[in-house]
Specification:
Blueprint (H helix, E strand, L loop, with lengths): L2 E3 H11 L4 E4 L6 H8 L5 E4 L3 H15 L3 E5 L3 H15 L4 E7 L28 E4 L6 H13 L6 E6 H5 L1 E3 L15 H13 L3 E5 L1 H5 L3 H11 L3 E3 L14 E3 L8 H7 L2 E5 L13 E6 L12 E5 L2 H11 L8 H14 L9 H11 L5 E4 L3 H9 L8 E2 L10 H11 L5 E6 H4 L6 H7 L4 E6 L4 H10 L14 H8 L2 E4 L3 H14 L3 E6 L8
Parallel strand pairs: 2-3, 2-4, 4-5, 5-7, 6-7, 9-10, 9-12, 10-11, 12-13, 13-14, 15-16, 15-17, 17-18, 18-20, 19-20
Antiparallel strand pairs: 1-8
């Protein structure tokens, strides 16, 4: 077994696990980790301008590619800054590895005021990570990395965090490098799968409700086959967009809220097959039968009592169902006509909210069918969850229930690094974009050709409208002073453009995508009506 530093053991272990890109920000306690990575020429290290962006980029990389995203930060403020991205990845069930430095072993939790010291640092991320570990011996680094990747590749995909003290990274030791290990994904209990298959074939009006678990398991093709075999319509969650193409005749899209006509179709179903979703927003009647398939046993039955729960990998379970069900011989013609009518009227001008509807239409027209759209917490982003047509898995991203401002642009950068041949577009409001606008420098330095669309209303628009409507017009803290975003972009070396209408946005976006260089499009807008 060879002698090596902890940093070398870390880098070599990551390389064995397939890591080829790390998003990080250098600092004193991780010098030897950086030195180890520098000795691995196949690993690309991308330096961000804020630790928050390291985990956002890792998240975007993971969700766009299906591979594991990774980040490296210093302890204390580095890890604390990174928690926004860790929380987003946790809420979106995204597999990212976060490696944090730590102060010297003998001073951990001594509260002596060492640079970057945080008492019991891993407790900070306990509730936004799947697994955490502290490594106190150089020889134990490969074991910790192997365990981390087992956690990332099995069960529900969520962030894992490892902290390694600076003296452990610098110390030399005899180290045994380990081979990766990945157990097969779990199948569903055979008896429960038989029961589920019989229920599906017996149901008169079944419905599939698909979440992001279908996508992360690689189960989209199998799910579409099941829907076609049984002539069952499919609704997706916002995070599940793309699990079935919005152009498919059985796709009904995403429900936008309690007044959406789609709710009537949900309530009219006598059986709902929920796959890879916690089923938090489906709102079935208490009497409706639900079959829920989820990799996380704690989610099964959480939000609906009348549930036949099956803990399994989504793709494996769907393939089991395909082997157990027989084709639907007759289709309910009235119900099929209702689906067709619903689909035909879903995106007509009379049903769309303006100006959001026109902006979303131009976005969809300009972005290639396999292009990736990352939406921030902004008016057009909210509206896109329902009305932006999505045709392939892993091409639409939100911050899920974490709902944090500023995540879209760095997440889009990570997605573009993972998929350099795909168009990647992010949409943000002016307030949200300035949370991470410094990453324009990263885009230029690393030649990451993301197009950022910034809708400018000089306010936290949702907050301003709510204050005006709900508090007798009193406003506080919701109006903004902004830079000239075109000049801001150009100062970094990014191509900046300003447009004044949805049609101009469509033209400018097509041109920017064709250039495949970092670009920003500023779109001045006025107040927008609520889409909720």
């Amino acid at each position: 077994m060879p002698m090596m530093t902890g940093g070398e053991a870390l880098a070599r272990s990551l390389h064995r696990e397939g890591i080829r890109t790390i998003f990080g920000l250098p600092g004193v306690q991780i010098y030897h980790a950086l030195d180890g990575i520098a000795k691995e020429p196949e690993i690309r290290f991308i330096t961000t301008r804020h630790e928050q962006a390291t985990t956002y980029m890792a998240d975007g990389y993971a969700r766009a590619s299906g591979r594991i995203g990774s980040s490296l930060v210093v302890p204390g403020p580095g890890l604390l800054n990174a928690t926004a991205g860790i929380g987003t990845a946790f809420s979106a069930s995204s597999p990212i590895l976060v490696i944090s430095g730590q102060i010297e072993t003998g001073r951990i939790n001594q509260d002596v005021g060492v640079l970057h010291e945080v008492h019991d640092q891993l407790e900070v991320v306990r509730n936004i990570s799947k697994w955490r570990a502290q490594v106190l011996n150089t020889a134990d680094i490969p074991k910790a990395i192997r365990r981390a990747f087992l956690e990332l590749r099995t069960g529900r995909p969520r962030p894992v965090v490892i902290e390694i003290p600076s003296d452990v990274l610098s110390a030399e030791s005899v180290v045994e490098l380990l081979e990766p290990g990945t157990p097969p994904p779990p199948s569903g209990d055979s008896g429960l799968m038989e029961e589920a298959a019989q229920a599906l074939m017996s149901a008169r009006k079944p419905l599939i409700w698909a979440g992001s678990g279908v996508i992360s398991a690689g189960g989209s093709d199998a799910m579409v086959k099941l829907a076609e075999l049984l002539a069952v319509p499919v609704i997706t969650t916002g995070e599940g967009k793309g699990a079935i193409s919005d152009d498919h005749y059985l796709s009904l899209g995403v429900a936008r809220g309690p007044t959406d006509p789609l709710r009537e179709l949900v309530h009219d179903s006598d059986l709902i097959l929920a796959i890879g979703t916690r089923f938090a927003t489906a709102m079935p009647h208490k009497t409706q039968q639900v079959i829920q398939i989820d990799i996380d046993s704690e989610e099964v039955g959480r939000n609906h009592e009348r549930t036949l729960g099956i803990t399994a990998d989504a793709r494996v379970a769907i393939e089991q169902l395909l082997s157990l069900v027989s084709p639907q011989q007759t289709k309910d013609s009235d119900r099929m006509r209702a689906f067709e009518s619903f689909r035909a009227n879903r995106h007509t001008p009379s049903t769309l909210l303006e100006p959001q509807g026109s902006f979303v239409r131009e976005l969809r027209s300009a972005i290639p069918s396999d292009g990736i759209l990352v939406t921030d917490m902004t008016q057009v982003g909210y509206y896109s969850r329902t009305y932006y047509k999505t045709y392939e898995p892993r091409t639409f991203m939100t911050s899920s229930y974490f709902g944090n401002l500023g995540y879209a642009y760095p997440t889009g950068l990570g997605a573009k690094v993972a998929c350099p041949d795909k168009a990647v577009v992010t949409i943000s409001g002016d307030g949200g974009f300035l949370f991470n606008s410094q990453e324009l420098a990263t885009a230029v330095a690393e030649d990451i050709g993301v197009v950022a669309v910034v809708f400018r209303d000089d306010a936290y628009g949702n907050v301003l409208r709510d204050q005006q409507n709900k508090f007798d017009g009193r406003e506080l803290g919701s109006r903004l002073h902004n830079p000239d975003f075109v000049k801001l972009a150009e100062s970094y070396g990014v191509r900046g453009t300003r447009v004044e209408s949805p049609s101009e946005l469509g033209v400018a976006l097509k041109n920017a995508i064709q250039l495949n260089r970092p670009a920003l499009i500023e779109v001045p807008v006025g107040p927008m009506p609520s889409g909720f």
